Amino acid sequence: MKKLTIITGLILIGIVIYIQINKNELSYYYEVFKKYPKESEIITNEYTKDYDFAYVKTYNSYKLNNSSDILNSVYTLLNNGNTNILRYCSIKYNDCLTNSYDIGSDQTILSNINNFVHPYNSFSQISFKDDGFMNIEISNDKIYSDDLIKEINTKLDSIMNEIITEDMTDEKKIEAFHNYLIKNTEYDTTKANDLTDSTHSSNTAYGVLIEGYGICSGYSDAVAIFLNKLNIKNYKINNAEHVWNLVNLNDKWLHLDITWDLPKDLTPGSDGIRRDYFLITTSRLKELNDNSHSFDTTIYQEANNS
């Protein structure tokens, strides 16, 4: 009994010493606990992807330990279709707020993260707020409004009923949509040369599917929405000048670029179909050597081995 009493005393002394040494950290996490008494339920919407990528992953913990946690929190916010997400910085992560504001002001990083989420969940601006903890908020300038989404979905469902049959393989379904867009849309050279031109919404899936005019961002969004309807893993790849799709077909990641399969002399309704950029490997993409399909291999890592 005496031995047990001594051990108990030593444990209590150890606890007191630990509290004294770490009182600032314990006080900080006590404040965290008051604000975050438990992990909140994750809210998703019908366009949330249930799979992750090499560059970004779903991150449901409140605690930010490094810059990857910040990136993943932004992705989680976007992917789930939420308007804000609360996080707190680990007391040992000294650069947390600095890194957060750096990421929040870097449009290239935000654009890259946007590529991994469903187009309907993508936003054009993200803001960060610091109230002693960190609050990631997303502005209300969503790229696709609810009305646009409803109209696009109605049109896309109609197209799919027209060109897709149950006996088709996924590749044949993608080919049917690829061919439909080539036959029924035009590349909007006016918009491509002046993004402020408002004649058509060619930079969105609405312009492609409803108006029949598109540029690379519009075509890639239309393809991404179509692939998500088929539950086919995908994301968009972009560089400073161009954007296209990466598709997971039969466990292999392949490139698909409708824009570059649009022959310059092809008019809507013609039968000529180009397939140079239809579900090709990265190796083949490099062989084409067109100077428009370079990409950051540290971000779009799934394409590295195809």
Tell me, rounded to a whole number, the average pLDDT: 86
SSE string, helices as H and strands as E: HHEHEHHEEHHEHHEHEEEEH
Assembly category: single chain
The CA-CA distance between the termini, in Å, is: 68 Å
Beta-strand segment tally: 10
- Please, how many helices? 11
The percentage helix is 40-55%
> Which residues sit in consecutive blocks of at least 5 with pLDDT less than 50?
12-22
Strand content: 5-15%
Report Rg. Answer: 24 Å
What can you see in these coordinates?
- This protein is of the alpha+beta class and 306 residues long.
- The protein has eleven helices and ten strands.
- β3 (126-130) and β4 form a beta hairpin.
- α6 packs across α9 (205-211), α7 packs antiparallel against α10 (216-229) and α9 packs across α10 (216-229).
- The protein starts with a helix and ends in an 18-residue tail after the last helix.
- Residues 12-22 have low confidence and may be disordered.
How do the strands and helices of this protein lay out in sequence?
Elements: H1 2-21, H2 23-35, E1 63-64, H3 67-79, E2 84-89, H4 96-104, H5 107-114, E3 126-130, E4 134-138, H6 146-163, H7 170-184, E5 186-187, H8 189-193, H9 205-211, E6 213-214, H10 216-229, E7 234-238, E8 243-249, E9 252-256, E10 278-280, H11 282-288
Parallel strand pairs: 1-2, 5-6
Antiparallel strand pairs: 2-4, 3-4, 7-8, 8-9, 9-10
Jot down its keywords.
4-stranded mixed beta sheet; alpha+beta; 4-stranded antiparallel beta sheet; 10 strands; elongated; 306 residues
